[in-house]
Specification:
Number of domains: 1
Distance between the termini: 41 Å
Largest sheet: 4 strands, antiparallel
Shape: globular
Order of helices and strands: EEEEEEEE
Radius of gyration: 15 Å
Strand content: over 45%
Length: 110
């Protein structure tokens, strides 16, 4: 049996406050501090079905680093695990944006 066969222990998560969440949208997020970057666990309902959203983490210089994309769905929550090559200590915020660049969800990170 290899280490890959072992039942992994979930890493600790950090709850974060979200801002700029428009009426009708409900969202929660946690972060995971990995040795290789930051993971965002995002759960969202109420986004327009079929619309593409982009997630970025802003690094210590304020530059956006891609974390992933997803498409809004009509029913049920969207559950995403998004990753960026920004260490947690260097992450200043994350944003979920529409194709036109409008921010729909933002979290300012300490």
């Amino acid at each position: 049996m290899s280490a890959l066969d072992d039942d992994p222990v979930a890493p600790p998560t950090e709850e974060v406050a979200l801002a700029l969440v428009p009426p009708g949208i409900d969202a929660d997020a946690t972060l995971v501090n990995h040795t290789w970057g930051t993971e965002i666990n995002l759960v969202v309902t109420g986004l327009p079905a079929g619309e593409e959203f982009t997630v970025t983490i802003q690094d210590e210089a304020g530059s956006p680093v891609p974390a992933g994309t997803f498409v809004g769905v009509a029913e049920g929550p969207i559950v995403c695990k998004l990753n960026a090559a920004v260490l947690r200590r260097d992450a200043r915020s994350f944003e979920v944006t529409r194709p036109d660049g409008a921010v729909v969800i933002r979290s300012d990170l300490a």
